[in-house]
Amino acid sequence: MSDSEQSEEQNREFKTDEDFDPEFFRNIERKSKIFSCIQCGTCTASCESGKWTALKTRNIIRKVCLGDLTVLKDPDIWLCTTCFACWERCPRNIQPTGVIMELRNYATKLGNISPNHRAVVGYLGNTGHAVPINDITKERRKELGLDELPPTLFKYKTEGEGKELENFKEFMFDLPPVKEEKKPKKKEEKK
Amino acid sequence: MVKEKTFAFFLGCIMPNRYPGIESSTKFMMEKLGYTILPMERASCCPAPGVFRSFNKVDWMVAAARNICIAEQMDTDIITVCNGCFGTLQEVDHHLKENEDHKVLVNEKLKKLGDYEYKGSINVRHAAEVLGYEVGPWGIEEFLVRKVKARVAIHYGCHLLKPVSVRGLDSAEKPSMLEDFLEPLGAESVDFVEKYTCCGAGGGVKAFDGNASMTIFEEKMKNIDAVKPDFILSPCPFCHLQFETGQDWLNKNKGTNYDYPVIHLSQLVAYCMGMDQKQTGLQFQMMGKDYIFQSEEIKQEEEVS
Questions:
Q1: How many CB atoms lie within 10 A of CB B284?
Q2: Which residues of B touch A88 (CB under 8 A)?
Q3: For a tag site, which of A46, A70, B91, B109 has the least CB within 10 Å?
Q4: At A9, is the pLDDT very low, low, confident or very high (cuts 50, 70, 90)?
Q5: Are residues B151 and B291 part of one domain?
Q6: Residue B252, exposed/middle/buried by CB under 10 A (0-12, 13-18, 19+)?
Q7: Which domain holds residue B82?
Q8: Host domain of residue A167
Q9: Within a domain: B135
Q10: Number of domains in chain B
Q11: How confident is the model at residue A24 (pLDDT cuts 50, 70, 90)?
Q12: pLDDT value at position A191?
């Protein structure tokens, strides 16, 4: 066995009974009738991201049916571009896009959220925009005869009436604290 | 009753903060068409349907409902020119009109943000749909000052049409709304392989894994390049951004030499209705800086009523 194979063997994750909770996804089942999935694979075949990435929608749906909680740690659920192709084509109308977004909600609650996404939430809290304005755009706006700042929440912040933006930051999209870095592929301890 | 021929203009993020040319074009276009466009003061991000809905669906609905409330207080329908904003606002509006429980839940949380109460008294519209079905290819002709001569690669984007059960605008597999509308403008739509697929930016993928996003985009761009259009047209500023930054990224990392201008539906329509090309802001964009519309004047601007 080569070194790399050996370390792979050591780091391999095995699923245990603790990784399964048939009750956990009950909410998703109620919304999406996910148990009517016949694993036909139309979702995977339609997937515009899965054509190039590791995202296998059918696999994810199967895991949810089995109550496999490891799916919440799976980075692949974040590769869906929400193009709704699978939603449109699913013969059982399971709405896989919706299921993936529900999974992301659970994953976020567990703190499984990428630093880049945290940054986007930060922009929203601080400026009211996911893409804040920059100086060059302000110049261009003036050149085109528009107001330097668009009349959005951000403008009213700089005009000294920023209370709404403060409320926005305080009550919206509260994320769990950043997890401490663990060694990759090592199983995290349950609480 | 909502005011007729009046819209609250929902800006969103990318259009006002990156592509102001689309904003000025949309204003010009809608006013020439006889609509009144009102600013939506204190509106926030829609918030984006892929990213923020993934984090917390309830908060996503509340923030969207807040934006809808602003228009409700103005007694006007909302108009947006972004598929993402349309996706969020139309979907939340549709959902809350049908789901009383969630409406109560959302209104409860809305109180924390300010003096808002969602009633469900207005509709959310996309400019592409207003042009395609209300103005229509049958009605645009009288407003045209010039026609372009161009072969156009149309990119619909995902959230304009899908999910069809919620949007109810056109087929997701073979739509024809934009092709039909652009015909009187002189734009010839060219078909290409996988025309209706995603640009790869949505769902938070562009932020989560830029390389994956670019891999999806690379294929899209290859298919477009194969038919050599004059420009790429999209009704969505986020797709617009992806097409611009994506071409740049491919040129730098994959040795391609793409320089296709990316043009928003509003920019093309505004130009055909008499706006100066300079005012459409194309010169500020990354791609196709030297592109000049090939066009044919059909009447003097003063004659347009």
A1: 18
A2: 162-164, 172-173
A3: A70
A4: low
A5: yes
A6: exposed
A7: 6-126
A8: 115-171
A9: no
A10: 2
A11: confident
A12: 43
Partner-chain contact B215 A124, CB within 8 Å: no
To the nearest whole number, what is the mean pLDDT of chain A? 85
Task: Determine the straight-line distance between the first and last CA of chain B, rounded to whole angstroms.
Answer: 28
Contact list, A133 vs chain B (CB under 8 Å): 16-17
Number of cross-chain residue pairs from A and B with Cβ atoms under 8 Å apart: 193
Long-range contacts, stretch B167-173, CB < 8 angstroms, 24+ apart: B167/B90, B169/B129, B169/B133, B170/B132, B172/A84, B172/A85, B172/A88, B172/B196, B173/A88
Residue B101: CB atoms within 10 A of its CB come to: 8
The H-or-E segment that residue B84 falls in is helix B83-98
ipTM: 0.90
CB-based contact (8 Å) between A150 and chain B?
Answer: yes
Quick one: B171 and B292 in the same domain?
yes
Number of domains comprising chain A = 2
Residues B292 and B164 in one domain: yes
Tell me if B39 and A87 make a contact (CB, 8 A cut-off).
no
Chain A residues touching residue B44 (CB < 8 angstroms): 124, 128-129, 152-153, 168
Measured CA to CA in angstroms, residue A23 lies from A160, B52, B118, B237 at distances of 49, 26, 34, 41
Is B279's CB within 8 Å of A53's CB? no
pLDDT band at A183 (very low <50, low <70, confident <90, very high): low
Q: Is the pLDDT of residue A189 over 80?
A: no
Contact state of A133 with B17 under an 8 Å Cβ cutoff:
yes
pLDDT at position B182 over 60: yes
